[in-house]
Design brief:
The chain has three domains: about 5-165, Rossmann fold, CATH 3.40.50; about 180-240; about 290-485 and about 505-669, no CATH class. The longest helix has 27 residues, at about 640-669. The protein contains 32 helices and eight strands. The relative contact order is 0.08. β4 (about 85-90), α3 and β5 form a beta-alpha-beta unit. It has helices at about 15-25, 70-80, 95-105, 120-125, 130-135, 150-165, 180-190, 190-200, 200-210, 215-220, 225-240, 245-265, 270-285, 290-310, 310-335, 340-355, 360-375, 380-385, 385-390, 400-405, 410-415, 425-430, 440-450, 455-480, 505-520, 525-540, 555-560, 575-580, 590-595, 610-625, 630-640, 640-669, and strands spanning about 5-10, 40-45, 50-55, 85-90, 110-115, 125-130, 140-145, 265. With about 675 residues, it is mainly alpha-helical. The chain starts with a strand and ends with a helix. The strands form two sheets. Strands 2-3-1-4-5-7 form a six-stranded mixed beta sheet, sandwiched between helices. It has a two-stranded antiparallel sheet with strand order 6-8.
């Protein structure tokens, strides 16, 4: 088939939509179990059908233009480039999911419903009359289990068939009666020519007019008489029903759904998953115990990462890389390579990049454990639990999503604030994200805790993460008193997914993405930084080979900055240049220290430079100081306030880090 087919993947959050996207395309797309992960649409070719592509749209609950996700999805579906919609419906929560399905059907586009999580339905002894439901809705329905790869081929065939045949819903769905019925049909008849001009269904346009959808009302271009007629019909409906316009449509949709589910679904009053989740939530979302439990879980993760599993594996890999460096050095000596080039290859490239690479096990273990939490549904509870403390600093639980992403990388975390409905909340959240310790800092923490605090690595790590969160809260308390940030946070509504056993495939996908990103930085940005640092530390200002690192141009320049850090306990040039290079990429901090101390990969010779107090102050400074260049560029773009605001953020973070490190050092000594 030569013509390209575009399939749009739509559905509620937590319906398994992105898992299905990965199944359809073989993509390594990250699967999240909390709202707001998908900010932009993602596209991939359907496996085995190169002529067909599928676009993963943000998870939404309706087609009303109230959030960035809803606007992205609706715009894409109404722009005319979609051949068919695949609507992903969670079979264990059909009453909620079918609300969006009815609106998608109103669009009048070719469509197929993917009834997902049917394995859970069967496990609970529940059944669905798929044929009867399909007949009632007028669209094909395919039962699937995206997590277990069941029914995927049948779904692809059905979607391609309706797209090729341009098979719209088989009959014009009419789920309403009485006053709502008369209002919808009267308005649809009146605006038929306007809707046709826009290329959208007149019924969809009519329901959006009734809901008071301002963007669509403007696009339809109704004249004053038509607008007055619409308002008159809506008022009549409201008076007859005794409710407002939005509630009237919501009631008719849910009444239809309840009747449909009652006729086609046989299920237990409450599923085992729901009962299990409700029982767990009694403890895990408890008013007083929830946050201590969360800190306890994170402490366990740090203990496993830096004490039991991750650090020993990192040490073993470091030893292996050290041996490799020795073998390479011996080989270069054997062939009589130039001594300067030998030092460049062994002490510069292998030691610098190898130091960073040796911490891949730490990264892998940390994100493996975090992805287990995320895929289980626990992270959604954290957003709920943190809503109350965040409201104390002027934000809502919705801001937890970008903050949690900030523990991975600040760049996507800052970008994810686009989903926040309030501009005030969005900008305040952006300013808090740099306080969340990104994964790029993990190698620094791992190295310093291994050298200076080998018996207390988990405790030090936990303390650092807590300090970062508390620092963000303190900054928010200050910022909320600035006139621009005054006001109340927007209401926060969250649908809790059931607890589920983590999907191994999803966990491994996330793990691979994190390790791949880390390694790509190690062999690109960090490689360049390491080469530059080695050359600068081995040449003097006249570009001759320096007698020692102390005589290099790097040392000369760094000594100008080093006094700034003397009150923090690390006022020597090696630490100063590590901090400066860390602005390019935080991982480069340890490769820089490895190069300028001429250390081996597994045992960077920093113990002679730092005291324990200075080492802890350095960790606190690394935790809080200015984000990397990529993160700052993203902050500048998302704040939309020019270079001045970005520079203010950079300077502010540096000042906060300096003060916090100063306090940490002097409290220690």
């Amino acid at each position: 088939m030569s013509n390209k087919i575009v399939l749009a993947l739509a559905g509620n959050q937590n319906s398994g939509k992105t898992t299905l996207f990965n199944r359809l395309t073989g993509s390594n797309r990250h699967v999240g179990n909390f709202p707001g992960v998908t900010v932009e649409r993602w596209e991939g070719h359907v496996s085995g059908h190169e002529f067909a592509s599928v676009v993963d749209l943000p998870g939404i609950y309706s087609l009303s233009p109230y959030s960035a996700e809803e606007m992205i999805t609706r715009s894409f579906l109404t722009e005319g480039g979609v051949d068919a919609i695949i609507d992903v419906v969670d079979a264990t929560n059909m009453e909620r999911n079918l609300y969006l399905s009815l609106q998608l059907i109103e669009l009048g586009l070719p469509m197929v419903i993917a009834l997902n999580m049917m394995d859970e339905m069967r496990a609970n002894g529940n059944t669905v009359d798929v044929a009867a439901m399909s007949d009632a809705l007028g669209v094909p329905i395919v039962p699937i289990s995206a997590g277990k790869n069941e029914g995927i081929h049948e779904l692809v065939d059905a979607a391609i068939d309706v797209a090729v045949a341009k098979q719209r819903p088989q009959h014009h769905l009419d789920f309403c009666s009485g006053p709502a019925h008369r209002c919808i049909h009267s308005i649809a008849h009146m605006i038929e020519d306007h809707a046709e001009r826009l290329g959208i269904s007149e019924r969809f346009a009519a329901t959006k007019l009734i809901e008071g959808d301002a963007p669509l009302t403007e696009s339809l271009g109704l004249n004053e008489n038509e607008l007055e007629s619409v308002e008159h019909l809506v008022k009549e409906m409201e008076n007859e029903l005794g409710t407002d316009r939005e509630a009237a449509l919501a009631d008719t949709r849910y009444n239809f759904i309840e009747g449909l589910v009652a006729r086609t679904v046989v299920k237990r009053p409450r599923s085992r998953e729901r009962e299990r989740s409700a029982g767990a939530d009694v403890i895990l979302t408890h008013k007083f115990f929830a946050i201590p439990i969360f800190f306890g879980i994170m402490g366990l993760i740090f203990w496993l990462t830096f004490g039991v599993v991750g650090q020993p594996l990192s040490d073993a890999l470091g030893t292996l890389i050290d041996s490799l460096s020795g073998w390479v050095g011996d080989g270069l000596d054997a062939v009589g390579i130039n001594p300067f080039m030998r030092r460049f290859i062994v002490d510069g490239v292998l030691t610098g990049v190898g130091t960073v690479v040796s911490f891949v096990p730490v990264i892998a273990v940390m994100f493996f454990l975090l992805s287990l939490l995320e895929d289980s549904g626990y992270m959604a509870r954290i957003a709920f639990v943190m809503d109350r403390p965040l409201r104390c600093v002027g934000l809502s639980g919705r801001s937890v999503v970008p903050m949690l992403l900030g523990f991975g990388c600040s760049v996507p975390a800052v970008m994810s604030t686009r989903t926040l409905p309030s501009e005030r909340d969005r900008k305040l959240s952006i300013l808090l994200i740099p306080f969340m310790s990104c994964s790029a800092k993990l190698p620094v923490y791992a190295l310093f805790t291994a050298v200076f605090f080998p018996k207390h690595g988990a405790a030090v790590m936990s303390l650092l993460y807590i300090l970062g969160v508390l620092g963000g809260f303190a900054a928010a308390l200050v910022l909320r008193n600035i006139p621009y940030f005054r006001g109340s946070p927007v209401p926060f509504v969250l649908e809790m997914p059931n607890y589920r056993l983590p999907n191994l495939r999803s966990v491994l996908i996330l793990l691979w993405e994190k390790c791949r990103d880390f390694l790509s930085r190690a062999f690109t940005v960090i490689f360049v930084a390491t080469v530059a640092i080695w050359l600068l530390s081995n040449l003097n200002v006249r570009l001759y080979a320096a007698a020692s690192y102390e005589d290099s141009m790097l040392a000369d320049v760094s000594r100008l900055v080093a006094p700034l850090f003397a009150p923090l306990g690390f006022g020597f040039w090696q630490a100063a240049i590590a901090v400066i290079v860390g602005l390019m990429a935080k991982e480069a901090t340890i490769s820089t220290l490895a190069v300028v101390t001429n250390a081996g990969v597994g045992s960077a010779n920093i113990a002679a430079l730092f005291t324990p107090a200075g080492a802890f102050a350095f960790l606190v400074f690394t935790l809080l100081y200015t984000p990397c260049i990529a993160a700052m560029a993203t902050i500048r773009r998302e704040l939309r306030s020019g270079d001045g605001a970005a520079l203010a953020v950079a300077a502010g973070q540096f000042a906060i880090a300096w003060c916090a490190a100063f306090a940490a050092y002097h409290l220690w000594i």
